[in-house]
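Subgroup meeting minutes
Present: P.N., E.W., G.H.
Scribe: E.W.

1. P.N. recapped why we're keeping a running log of single-chain structure predictions: easier to compare across weeks, and new members can see raw inputs and outputs side by side.
2. G.H. added today's entry (167 aa).
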Amino acid sequence: MGGGVLLVVCALVAVWVFGGEDEAAGPPDARARQYRDVDACLLTGEDGIKAGTPAAVWQGMEAASGDTRARVTHVPVMGAQTAANALPHLNGLIQRDCEIVLATGQAQTETVRKAAGSHPRTRFVVVGSEGESRGAQPGNLTVVAPGDGVPDEVAKVVRRAVNTVQQ
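Output recorded in log:
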């Protein structure tokens, strides 16, 4: 009887060690999306991308991501909607190496307009009128006019920026 128990124990150990599921990594799931190492980040007001201009900008960013495989994210500025409060959120996006930073909302666009010249390697896009800017505009800042064409215009600008970053 001792030999039979030993045989069963050895068989169980063998199955446990050599059998079971093969956990070797196979090829990635065919549905998994492979992104480029390019990030486009949207800075919004407290309501995020629920509606209005931020939703239209997000729609354009997603369209551009589908074509370019750039990663897209959004960060709402929580609390007071002031340029001073938006600045730490913008700095966080720059520290995360967002190559393209988009902004909607008065406080967010004001902050981006002020900071763009200090970050020449980052591409900035604000949705607002050219007239809101005082003085010369840095070369890394693009202004998209608000209105019905925002999703298409944002998609075009993001595609162009992704291609510039990749060169």
